[in-house]
Structure formats: structure tokens, C-alpha cells
Amino acid sequence: MNCWEFFCRIRRSVWFVFFDTYIGRLTQILLLDKRKGAMTVAKVYVFDHPLIQHKLTYIRDKHTGTKEFRELVDEVATLMAFEITRDMTLEDITIETPVSETKSKVLSGKKLGIIPILRAGIGMVDGVLKLIPAAKVGHIGLYRDPETLLPVEYYVKLPSDVEEREFIVVDPMLATGGSAIAAIHSLKSRGAKHIKFMCLIAAPEGVAAVEQAHPDVDIYIAALDEKLNEHGYIVPGLGDAGDRLFGTK
Ligand code: PRP
Ligand code: URA
Q1: How does pLDDT run across 65-79, given as a tens digit for each residue?
Q2: Which GO molecular function annotation, any one, does this entry have (predicted)?
Q3: pLDDT tens for each residue of 131-156
Q4: In 10 A of CB 54, how many CB atoms?
Q5: How many domains does the chain have?
Q6: Which residue has the least CA distance to atom 4 on ligand 2?
Q7: Disulfide-capable partner of 36 in 59, 86, 99, 130 (CB 3.0 to 4.6 Å)?
């Protein structure tokens, strides 16, 4: 190798080191941008917690049976709820420990309501209730017409104090976005003002549709998948969430 070739090789290595550092820096910036344990992209939070990602792998796996699927969905819902409730407001109260009087924090502010979109959303309710046992639970029944893929509403029952509550709408799947949009619309038309939407797996099409229809609603996702297929299923997704939860196929 002559001097020039040696110089070129060194220069290339230096460039790669610089490039590597630059990419590393970018990754760092993205990681630093993680707000509350979730990566923010506008108002969409994609959870990257290893426990959530690990459990999601087995939720997706077609060899996972109904019992395990149900348990895993429940566990992931709890983990997600832990992050989603991070912005709950606190107030000081005075208590007495066995040693002294002290000020300590308790939850204040709006009470919570959980709204599963039937059927599959039911699978996430208990997981959220484990952390917020006093939350009220409303139900919105929607199914997706297999031909048009449009949501059909068949049941709505909400807590009576809708206007005062903050709601978390839960559904494992956000595909075209039709069901989430309709459920949120249904809630708003009955007076709800503070709504978050939480799902396990979302397609980019669904996220964009919900963001556009309800820009005031934050979306929390365990995984943002690649696309929808021609049947409106999320790819790679997990298949039909309702059927897998309830063993109906
Ligand atoms: C599934 C899922 C969502 C909806 C998502 O429900 O649980 O509610 O599809 O699809 P979208 O974003 O395109 O509206 P499904 O309609 O299969 O009803 P089910 O829960 O009763 O099975
Ligand atoms: N509903 C599901 O259950 N799964 C999908 O992939 C899309 C909609």
C-alpha cells in the first residue's frame, strides 16, 4: 500500500467514525426526546419499554393460545397505563407518620373513566383497573363491517358524569382508525372533553386518520406497524384481536 492509499483508508475510517458518532448523536437526541418513557412524534407516543416489547412479541405470535394471549394483553395494558397516567395531578395533604407530621402527595384533579371499544377493548380494562381501581368503566360497542370496513355502533353506556372525567379509550387495534374515530366522536357528543386513546398495535393509516379527526386526543401505542393489507388488517399485526382474546375462531 502506498502513502496515498494509506491516507485514503485513514480518511475513510475517520469519516466512518464521524458518521457513526453523528448517527449515535441522532439516536441520543431521539432518546433524550423520550417524554415520560415514550417517544414523542407530535401527539403520538410509541412505547419502547423492553417489557412491553417483549410481551408484544408473544401477543403477536400465532402459536400463543387464548389464555396466554389474554394474560399478556392484560399485562401490557397495565404497563401502558403506568406511563399514560404520568401526567396526573397531585396535591399535598398533611399526614402523620409514626415519627412526625409531614406533607405528602395524593392524586387530585379529574377522575378517570376507561372506555373499552367492544369487543376487544374489554381485554385491556382489568389491566388499567389494576392501577386505577376507582376508575369508572363505560362501554362503546362497535364492529367493523367486513365489506365497507366502516364502524357500526351498537351499544353505548357511559358514566353519568361524562363532562367531569378524563377518559382513556382502549382497543388493542388501530387499523383504518374508523372505530377509534367513531368511539371518540361518540364520547365527545355526550360531553367528554378530555380523552386519550390507547392501543397495542397501530397502522400508520389509522394513526393519521385519528390525528386528523381528533387532533386534541393523544394516542398511546405499544407498536407502530408497517401498513394495512387489502382486508384492512394490520401487517404484521396480531390477527383478529377479538377472536384471539375470546377464542371465537
Ligand atoms: C377490531 C378492533 C378495533 C377495530 C379496528 O374490532 O378491536 O375495534 O377492529 O379497526 P379499524 O381501526 O379499521 O376500525 P372488530 O371490528 O373486529 O370487532 P370485535 O372487537 O367485536 O371483534
Ligand atoms: N382489527 C383486528 O382485530 N385486527 C386488525 O389487524 C385490524 C382490525
Answers
A1: 999 999 999 999 999
A2: uracil phosphoribosyltransferase activity
A3: 999 999 999 999 888 888 889 999 99
A4: 11
A5: 1
A6: 240
A7: 86
